Structure formats: C-alpha cells, structure tokens
Description:
This protein is mainly β. The chain has helices at residues 3-13, 29-34; strands spanning 25-27, 47-49, 56-59, 63-64, 73-75, 81-83, 88-90, 112-114, 123-130, 137-138, 144-151, 156-160, 165-167, 176-179. Helices cover 9% and strands 30% of the residues. The strands form two sheets. Strands 1, 3, 4, 6, 7, 9, 11 and 13 form an eight-stranded parallel sheet that branches. A six-stranded parallel sheet has the order 2-5-8-10-12-14, with no helix packed on it. The N and C termini lie far apart (62 Å).
Amino acid sequence: MRSIPILVLLFLALPLPALASNGVLEINQACAVQTGCFAGDSVGLPATINGSAGRSDRPTSGLVVPNENTDGIQVSSDDVGIDLNHFTIRGPVVCSGTHPACTPGSGTGSDIERTSSAVSGTSVRNGVIRGMGNHGVLLGDQAEVSHSRLRSNRVDGIQTGSSGTVSGGAMPATTSAMVR
C-alpha cells in the first residue's frame, strides 16, 4: 500500500512542459532563459521546438533576442504550429521608422527558423517579428505565415521553401518577403 503514494510523488516530480489552455505549450522569456520551456529545449535562446512535447506552441510573453547572431525560436520537427498570440519577438535593433539605420548591418540570427531544410509544414501566425541580423522568419517547404508584421530584419522578412504561403499581414516596403 505504501508504493502507491511513492509512485504518485515520483510522477509529480517529473518535469512536464508548461501548458497554456487547450494543451498548447507555452514559450516565454523566463522559461527560455532560466529553465528551457519544455522537453528537449535547453536553457537559453533559441527556444527549440522538437515536437516531442507537442506540436502547438504559444508565447505567453514577448521574447527579446540578445544579439543579432542568436535565433529566437528554432523548429526541428514537421507540422509545428506557432501562434505568437500578438506578442513580439524582438531582436537587438529597436527603433521606429523605416530608414536603413533600423536594420542590423550583419548577423546570422533569425526570430523563427527551421533547423534543417528538411523540416516542413511549420505555421506561424499573429505576431510581430523585428530587428534580426538575418531573416525574420526562415522556414521550409509547405510553411504558412499569416497575420504577422515583420520589420527591420536584415535579409528577408519571410522566406519559405516550396509551396509556402504568406497571407493576411502587412509588411513595410523596406522588409522583403520572399517565398521560395
């Protein structure tokens, strides 16, 4: 009879992903830099979504990327959905306006990026992505980006692989959107 309470305690001690409503996994600045946000995500940015903890992710706060060479979120599994929940993933360049000084001069970091060109079917929606040293969003084949604003990213605002779609968002003229 004593083994049942011990098993319950062991189960409660297991690290479990933070869940927002409806089983959606949470991503926020605190978990990203202090503990990792869910199984397979190490401490620090980028927050890495590998699909083992779940395939639906939502920030519960904005993310601030510390420099132009760090990614904000990396996706390493097919068919992951990221609803930015109207938050901003912000790189190191913060300014208003559209003049060239609002774009990083160099850097390799993207706000949201796939870890391999083989990763496909990623969906990103409902957010602001700005100020990165490389792409705002760099995704693979059959990716979807919708209802998002991208600005002040050095290379492309959005780049997807074949059969990618971009819809429902306004992008300033100084931010390129490329679907490849």
